[in-house]
């Protein structure tokens, strides 16, 4: 099973292509390789989506102090920001939960516990993906006239 | 048995120049995903109308929470910059020869970026907590 494949061969160094502190050793193939590649590709996209989001919403122009219902209603009038926020939701959840899976591999050794912890994160992740997607695409401020 | 050596299976990773950035990358990553879990829920409250959303978002206007928010921004920025460093080493292994310089450079870039950000966000925090008018 995947649990077996996750164990590192004892003869290779724990970390990095040269045994230095780089990322994980590039896996040979299968799910682990795709997950390794996904972390890097989503990381590049999140570099713009997440850092941009944090600077816009939390640092510049008054940061979070200007955020209220009216602000969100105005911002989500634009399909650009709805798409940005939805892409950020999906990629951040996938990237974060893939990262948690790697950490669980390192610290949770007992197979049933590892399965349970991973399942918990997958269920939380899928629920939040569903909740976020529904809200981003169905939010309609005209249901509360005069609020914004 | 050789296969059971602790360092190979790695619960406590030690002994390489990258160990501190490796630990920091983990800690910031976990902090960000845990915050994201809460943040998706608080943003989703916008679908329940202005009364509900403005009450929830008022939590973020508290100065103590703003202090945590500064930590969140720092975590995202560190994770992003260190992530670029990791990809550099992974996709161009030759760059590991300059690991020390690149580590100093990326940490320096992070600290440099945090100077204006700490000023901008810290000003708001001081104004809110101490009633100043910076």
In brief:
The complex is a heterodimer of chains A (148) and B (134). Helices cover 66% and strands 0% of the residues of chain A. Chain A is mostly helical.
Structural commentary:
The complex is a heterodimer of chains A (148) and B (134). In chain A, 66% of the residues lie in helices and 0% in strands. Chain A contains five helices and no strands. With 134 residues, chain B is mainly α. Chain B is elongated. The interface between A and B is large, with 56 and 56 residues.
Name the average pLDDT of chain B: 88
- Stretches of chain A where pLDDT falls below 50 for ≥5 residues? 1-21
Largest interface: A-B, 56 and 56 residues
CATH superfamily of chain A: Fumarate reductase/succinate dehydrogenase, transmembrane subunit
**Computed structural class of chain A:** mainly alpha
> What is the β-strand count of chain B?
0
CATH superfamily of chain B: Fumarate reductase/succinate dehydrogenase, transmembrane subunit
Radius of gyration of chain B, in Å, reads 20 Å
**What is the alpha-carbon Rg of chain A in Å?**
20 Å
- Which fold name fills CATH's third level, the topology of chain A? 3 helical TM bundles of succinate and fumarate reductases
Uncertain segments of chain B: none
Q: How much of the residues of chain A is beta strand, in percent?
A: under 5%
Task: Count the E strands of chain A.
Answer: 0
Termini gap of chain A:
53 Å
Task: Predict the CATH topology of chain B.
Answer: 3 helical TM bundles of succinate and fumarate reductases
Distance N to C terminus of chain B: 64 Å
Q: From N to C, what is the helix and strand string of chain A?
A: HHHHH
What are the key terms here?
heterodimer; A: 148 residues; mainly alpha; 3 helical TM bundles of succinate and fumarate reductases; 5 helices; elongated; disordered N terminus; B: 134 residues; 0% strand
């Amino acid at each position: 099973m995947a649990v077996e494949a996750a164990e590192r061969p004892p003869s290779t160094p724990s970390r990095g292509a040269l045994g230095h502190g780089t990322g994980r050793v590039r896996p040979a193939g299968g799910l682990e390789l795709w997950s390794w590649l996904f972390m890097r590709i989503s990381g590049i996209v999140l570099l713009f989506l997440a850092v941009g989001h944090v600077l816009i919403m939390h640092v510049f122009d008054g940061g979070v102090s200007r955020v209220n219902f009216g602000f969100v209603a105005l911002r989500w009038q634009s399909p650009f920001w709805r798409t940005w926020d939805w892409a950020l939701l999906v990629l951040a959840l996938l990237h974060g939960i893939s990262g948690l899976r790697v950490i669980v591999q390192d610290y949770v050794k007992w197979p049933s516990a590892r399965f349970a912890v991973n399942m918990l994160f997958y269920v939380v992740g899928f629920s939040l993906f569903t909740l976020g997607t529904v809200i981003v695409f169905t939010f309609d401020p005209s249901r509360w006239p005069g609020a914004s | 048995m050789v296969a059971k050596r602790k360092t190979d299976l790695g619960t406590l990773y030690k002994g390489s120049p990258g160990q501190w950035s490796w630990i920091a990358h983990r800690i910031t990553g976990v902090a960000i995903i845990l915050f994201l879990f809460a943040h998706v829920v608080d943003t989703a409250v916008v679908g329940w109308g202005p009364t509900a959303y403005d009450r929830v978002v008022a939590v973020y206007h508290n100065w103590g929470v703003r202090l945590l928010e500064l930590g969140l921004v720092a975590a995202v920025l560190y994770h992003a910059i260190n992530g670029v460093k990791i990809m550099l080493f992974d996709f161009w292994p030759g760059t590991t020869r300059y690991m020390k310089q690149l580590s100093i450079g990326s940490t320096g870039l992070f600290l440099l970026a945090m100077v204006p950000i700490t000023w901008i966000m810290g000003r708001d925090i001081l104004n809110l907590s101490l009633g100043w008018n910076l």
